[in-house]
Amino acid sequence: MLIRKITLFYFSFLVFLFSANAQHKALSKIDISDLKEYLSFIASDELQGRALGTDVDGLNIAANYLTDYAKETGLKPAFENYFQSVPISHTVQNNEAFIEVKNAKGKSLYRSEEVVKFDQNAGVFNLDKEPVVFIGFGNAVKSLDLKDKVVVVAQGSEETFSQGAFEWQNRLERQKINEIAEKQPKAMLLVTNPKDHGNKTFKQLQAWLNRPGYSVKKDNVPFQPAVLLATPDVADALLGKKGEYEKYLENIVSETAVFTEVNKTISLKIGTEPEILEGKNVVAYIEGSDPVLKDEYIVFMAHYDHLGVGKDGDVYNGADDNGSGTVAIMEVAEAFASLKEKPKRSIVFLWVTCEEKGHFGSSYYCDHPIFPLDKTVASINLDMVGRVYDGPRDDVWKDSPKKVKDFDGLYTLSNDVWPKLAEINANYCAELGLVPDTSLPKERFLRASDHYHFHKNGVPILNYATGYHADYHKVGDEVEKINFEKIKRVADLCFLVGFDLANKEDIEF
Ligand SMILES: [Zn+2]
Fold first, then answer.
1. pLDDT tens per residue across span 299-351
2. Which pLDDT tens digit goes with each residue over 61-118?
3. Residue 86 forms beta bridges with which residues?
4. Are 326 and 482 in contact (CB under 8 A)?
5. How far is the centre of ligand 1, averaged over its atoms, from the C-alpha of 475 (Å)?
6. Which domain holds residue 240?
7. Distance CA 139, CA 259 (A)
8. Ligand 1 center to residue 448 CA distance, Å?
9. Which of 191, 333, 394, 406 is the most buried (most CB within 10 A)?
């Protein structure tokens, strides 16, 4: 009996040694000179800051580089050519937009180009001689019939108007817009405050709203009314003459008469058909060795895009954001690929596109996952893992809860879907001499990068980051400032955590 026990122990010790040795060998594949070589290309001027719409399609060059790498490394393609195509609609400012006020006979009384669409992606609107209703500051929306009308609503509230304040309060206006939209009008005109002389607020918002708009193309979008920002001139024209709109608002404040129909109509044209662009997620995987567990997945993710080229021609190379995560995962993939005996579960390598434009790649992947999300044991996202605190240069971020860490520190963010994951992570951090900082406020940072879309779908997540520095989203985010030893430590951690998760017998969450 004792001999059996000893033999068993000896045997399992051998297995342990064997697997520890295999891990050790695999870790040696994560190589600093490789990381340097890959990042020097990914974050070079040649790739034009890896964004949609640059003269040279650097984003696509990066995607091709990653797929070539996946092929060479022997990773399996999850899609043909490793590409998951992400349809992105791109809209630009419409120079022919106008708004026109007509009288009952259809005669034009006022016409202006000073109108902007709130949501650049909301399509094309072409309305003629539509009935108009004024609803004050929009307090009584719930009781009003606004169907198929053009609704004129004032910016701000009675309170801010009487105080003479006209700062834009985004939350207030958004709430108003949503409430009115539920009543299915054809359009709503959010009119800026008549006391805002020179239309400062309008002009500021106009510059912001007229930037090129990108969004993931959605099919079967339900009808949305046009939401437009307009100057008080339009409202004056509808009410009869200059200054009437201010008087109207003053009346509302004193008498709370809010629902006013006018005997004039609105015609308008705004919006252009979007151009459909193709973004690409690069998705590769290593199939698990266990006949059952291979249908469960560990996903390593990093966004490979960045900010592109500035107006002045400066290239934003994004070496840390997120060239660092991109190349770290390349090396993690190589380490897993080098294992003679593959882990039990499958390992997915997901390089996502257009994070900087609004997490397009990751949100699209989670809406169209090729590996089921309910079989995804964990998603490990790397976003900026290449910098180490090196003195006062980083002090601009001194008030951030996520300021750049020293050589041993690492932000590790997890959600609460499977608390054991944070524990596993902490153990491997300790093994590598890394000090995990789990103090980032979850309500803010769970939303801050691609892991959000996995989190939203109930997948346990880990996010690694070395923190914000003075070059964050600046042209100074260059390869020379990267600490490659640090990237290797993070990649080593990824491998060890991934290896453990992929081989664990029973995972329940
Ligand atoms: Zn990033």
1. 999 999 999 999 899 999 999 999 999 999 999 999 999 999 999 999 999 99
2. 999 999 999 999 999 999 888 999 999 998 876 668 899 999 989 999 999 988 888 8
3. 279
4. no
5. 14
6. 98-270
7. 10
8. 9
9. 333
